[in-house]
Amino acid sequence: MENLVKLTIDGVSVEVPAGTTVLEAAKKAGINIPTLCYLKDINQIGACRMCVVDTGARAFGAACVLPVAPGMNVKTNTPKLRDARRVNLELLLSNHDKKCLSCHRNQNCELQQMCMDLGVDDEDRFAGKMNSYDIDDLSPSIVRNNNKCILCRRCVAACNNTQAVGVIGPVNRGFKTEIKSAWGQSLSEVACINCGQCIAACPTGALYEKDGTKDVWDMLADDEVITVVQPAPAVRAALGEEFGMPMGTSVTGKLAAALRRLGFNKVFDTDWGADLTIMEEGTELLGRLKNGGTLPMITSCSPGWIKFCETYYPEFIPNLSSCKSPHEMEGAMIKSYWAEKEGIDPHKIRVISVMPCTAKKFEAKRPELGHDGMADVDAVVTTRELARMIKEAGIDFVNLPDEDFDSVMGESSGAGVIFGATGGVMEAALRTVYEKVTGETLNPVEFHEVRGIQGVKEATVKVGDLDVAVAIAHGTANAAKLLDSIKAGEKNYTFIEVMGCPGGCVTGGGQPIVSAQKRMEIDPKVVRAKALYDEDAGKPVRKSHENESVMAAYRDYLGEPNSHKAHELLHTTYVARAKYSK
Amino acid sequence: MPDNKEKYAKLQESIAKHKGERGAVMPVLQEAMNIFGYVPQDVQEMIADGLGTTLSEVYGVSTFYSQFSLEPKGEHVIGVCLGTACYVKGSQKVLDRISEELKIEVGRTTKDGKFTLNATRCLGACGLAPVMMIGDEVYGRLTPDEVPGILAKY
What we know:
Number of domains of chain B: 2
Structural class of chain B: alpha+beta
Number of strands of chain A: 19
Structural class of chain A: alpha/beta
Shape of chain A: globular
CATH architecture of the largest domain in chain A: 3-Layer(aba) Sandwich
CATH architecture of the largest domain in chain B: 3-Layer(aba) Sandwich
Oligomer: heterodimer
Helix content of chain A: 25-40%
CATH topology of the largest domain in chain A: Rossmann fold
Shape of chain B: elongated
Number of helices of chain B: 7
């Protein structure tokens, strides 16, 4: 039995489990206490003092870290509290650049929202000395502008705790305090994995993706090149949010329509590349099992995870699947198979990927991901950037008709669709591996044991006579835990899926940003994933090896999975990276 | 360098002693200060790896507290008292003059490694205000014009 605590908040009686914070209890009583540094499950440190409440104690308490007590009588809305919060905000504004009009987060900024909600009527009330910081835009993925930073430390918590990377932190003290990397190094110099979870955590515009839209607009305006676009699975599960649609709305058809209206010459789908990945990766796994290769084999779709492994766990590099990630595979196929088929000079093709991910920007620049002097992918924009492009082009997204992707690389199975959620790559692989090994038809097609948002999931899957021990981790801190347990000899698996971001790609660092208040009501990891699983369930083809156009690519061009040609185009190598740079 | 090797061995000892303790970064940084006189990047990296924390954490602590120095201290450490009595008696002007003469900001070390300039809290010699110390030597009732002559002695 759960130990329940009864208390009163603004005259409303609530009963909540012991250990609940006053902030959460108030939510239950229908009261949204303002917050800034609080981010559910990530940062609960009571630093910003926006959530102060009056419990009759000598001093106001921070509701986000104040546990409920029996009989507590909490007031959240008194003149003194409102004043305290407003002064707090005005002091934050005294060292904030307040350039809202040109800010990426304009109208989606928690600081701005808070100023509106709490009635700040003079942003310069405490005008005085301000810090001025250089913008760090040297990373291929992430830009930090500390002129907008309010020192809430949400990014620090995401980097350190959720991702076990910890390359940013508070430096100096008092007015000189700044969030940055040690020794003043740029994010491009430290062992940042480019995952962008810091961006997703930021309440203001201090962190954002390195802009790729200008390059893409230039490509679209260039008549000499052929632009081929491919959106990742997770994009369709979240893009609608940027246009006011409810979280969890799948916008696949509108996505294809919008890309076509932006003027891309071909609108393909990375889901096709995902199906191709399963053919290669599944075959690789069976090969390793048969030939005594390195096990467990670990998936390689997530570039944040890959850089994490290369930097922090290089001893596991032999365990990484040699498969390129789906959009890189598709890029390579666009510039070889498709170019040949269409009689187009591949040097004239520009492949543009729309990704839920900031690390894909780094990945696309990896020198090994290309052939014949061409990069497999020429530009990467995030879901957020695509939304900006659609708005800039004046496209009425919400009222677009549903359209299909172009053939041949627009056709996909349900297995390709679920790649965007944690456990999805594993499930997609199992569907194919099971049928390849047993020769039987899988029924039911779902593997529910690998779904869900538990940090580390484990299952033993019977594939014919084979017991395949699998594990799934999402968020690199969870991956670290999993790898540590393997290193310690406590665990033993055959096949592991790792996605760098918690929740997988649906909650990647390039996805629409969900405010802290919203995250208290709804878990984007669950709701967006459901959009993908629903889409999978509604697909006529649900297994990668039944994707007819992928099979045609093998028949007409690649030969067998893991063939020499497939290896040349679809597989890659990794490098151990130093944790510290001099 | 055998000398340095010994220093790093001492640092490792300190890390081993404090590993697993809550808040271990502080005492290890303090001991590193005693061993090296400052806490450079490679020392901080060793502390981070040794204690199983991040360089960001160690660097954050080392920049938060003024007792930690990121650069080597000069041969002679100057401490100008900015306590109330000395301040009232004009020690800021003395400090500014030293800063001007040595061409360094407060907290920094001269290029030749000879002087480090610090501003300190009360040195407990208010009767002699304004006061400064160079090494263990105390100079009292100072005027800015005396500064060049005093510095020339070193």
